[in-house]
Amino acid sequence: MTRIHEPSVKSLLIEMRFSGQPLATGSGFVADSVRGPVLVTNRHNLSGRSCETGKPLSASGGIPNEVVIVHNSSKGFGHWISVVEPLLRSDGAPRWHEHPKLRDKGDFVALPLSHLGGVALHKYSMADTGPDIQVGPSDYVSVVGFPFGLTGGGAFAIWATGFLATEPDVDQFGKPIVLVDCRARQGQSGSAVIAHRSGGSVAMKNGDSAVFSGPVTKFIGIYSGRVNLESDLGIVWKASAIGELLETMN
Fold first, then answer.
1. Would the CATH topology of 7-123 be identical to that of 127-248?
2. How buried is 245 (Cβ within 10 angstroms: 0-12 exposed, 13-18 middle, 19+ buried)?
């Protein structure tokens, strides 16, 4: 019997388009908010603009007005369904929601999902991010997404594994960010970042060890790109900040 690890289906391939014209691919995942299920991804994916400069990211200068989400199908594992979600309201305002304090300086957003017929949702929870396993500098973590729009077969995600590079309880650049040392690339923006252990004896944050009969996963945050093009250090917005966004959507 084929065994599929759940994080491989929790990360979703997305494609940003302008009226049907493809502009870029990226990654995302589903979480619950006070308004129901949402796609969590990077702001720069959906806005089509750099969070630092505001300039268009596409070489064509195009700005997306819709996103195609390759959801898991209700038919079961190994089946997918592509759904188009509009990015703008009728008045031209964005449909996505931003962090209440960071606003456009936080490179993560939540897009309410309006078309869920035939879709199976496999969600991450910001209220329960997983067992409190030890994840500190030099511990390995995985960026689970779609580099260059590639998949791990079908629409299963690809796992790029590296190491936590900074103290998880310390913010970087004055923002709720932790850094990872991982060779992630274009298309992985919006990926879920997790600490995944195969089971057995696992070190816990309190210094003890716990024995798990199967795989355990701790959600760390959302990947949003490298600190610069010369570095493999990547930016991860923390789960706690995503939780604040999901709890305050109005």
1. yes
2. buried
Query: Taking Cα atoms as reference points, which of 120, 93, 133, 119 lies closest to residue 215?
Result: 133
CA neighbor of 10 nearest in space, from 24, 36, 26, 31:
31
Helix, strand, coil percentages in the chain from 3-state DSSP, rounded to 5: 10, 45, 45
So what's the architecture of 127-248 in CATH?
Answer: Beta Barrel (2.40)
Whole-angstrom distance, CA of residue 110 vs CA of residue 220: 17
Closest alpha carbon to 198 in 180, 185, 211: 211
CATH class of the 7-123 domain in this structure: mainly beta
The full set of domain ranges for the chain reads 7-123, 127-248
pLDDT (0 to 100) of residue 42 = 98
115 neighbors 81 (Cβ within 8 angstroms): no
By the 10 Å C-beta count (0-12 exposed, 13-18 middle, 19+ buried), 216 is classed as middle
Which tens digit of pLDDT belongs to each residue from 8-66?
A: 999 999 999 999 999 999 999 999 999 999 999 999 999 999 988 889 888 888 999 99
Torsion, CA 101, CA 103, CA 106, CA 107, rounded to 10:
160
* Integer Cα distance of 110 and 45 in angstroms: 12
DSSP codes, 97-153? EE-TTTGGGSS-EEEE----TTEE--EE-SS-----B---TT-EEEEEE-GGG--SS
Q: How far apart are CA 151 and CA 158, in angstroms?
A: 6
State the chain's mean pLDDT as an integer: 95
* Sequence-ordered list of residues with C-beta below 8 angstroms from that of 182, at least 6 positions apart, any chain: 141, 143, 160, 161, 162, 163, 232, 234
Q: How far is CA 231 from CA 52, 175, 181, 220, 225, in A?
A: 18, 20, 9, 21, 10
